[in-house]
What does this fold into?
Amino acid sequence: MAGSQRIYRARIKSTQSLKKVFRAQELIAASRIGKARARAQSAAPYAAAITQSVSALATHADIDHPLASERKDTNRVAVLLITSDRGMAGAYTANVLREGERLIESLTEEGRTIDLYVAGRRGLGYFQYRGRDVVKSWTGESDAPTPQMAEEIAEELLSRFLAPADEGGVAELHVVYTRFINMVTQQPRILRLLPLEVVEGVEPVDEHEALPLYEFEPSPVEVLDALLPRYIRSRIYSLLLQAAASELASRQRAMHTATDNAEDLIRTYTRLANQARQGEITQEITEIVSGADALKAS
It folds into this structure.
């Protein structure tokens, strides 16, 4: 009985320590989620404006641009997975990796060769553990991505898309990320970023509203050359911000659940420890009574 009581007391102490860690992680995530949501929302107007500009250019200018054209000279495909740098975020990274594996399997069945790019230590560790090559990775900023990181990723992927086939050029670029919907719902998604897929059109909201007329100076080609790289950078930065908000929301929710579970374990172990203590006291009383009876009998 005494041994059981010591075991339960040790478990209570260790669970209390874990509870403090979980609670701290929950508070940290809660303090950062507001800023992450604000950053994602503040980046939305620029992304919408540049998307509308690219849409207008694609709609009103009949031109052929490398970033908007299908490549037939290579079967290589680049896949970027946006994961987290740290754990304790529930199934956040697992959902992204599961979606990425499904995409990779689908592309492989089509006869494509996959070039993996990873943002986040958890995703990088996942592929390294399985012995799969990662062309390039970015770590350290998953919950607070910077414009510099987005620009570095965009430049690397753009250069690979525009490179000749014999120099490792890719025909497509897919991004697997987590879309932030609200504090409860975060949805893993797959987006084909290149060749260009304009997500938002320029159709008027009101059916009676006339579409604006556009003039491109100095020429549509030069305007597109300037806009498309910025469009790709803004899209990647927006996806990184969405993923950061999703990671923090998932971590806050997971740590809240872990804290509640730790409290339940503490209550359970406390009850078991009390039962063990009561059993120990009962045994000691029985031994004393038995000893006294034995003395009387002698």
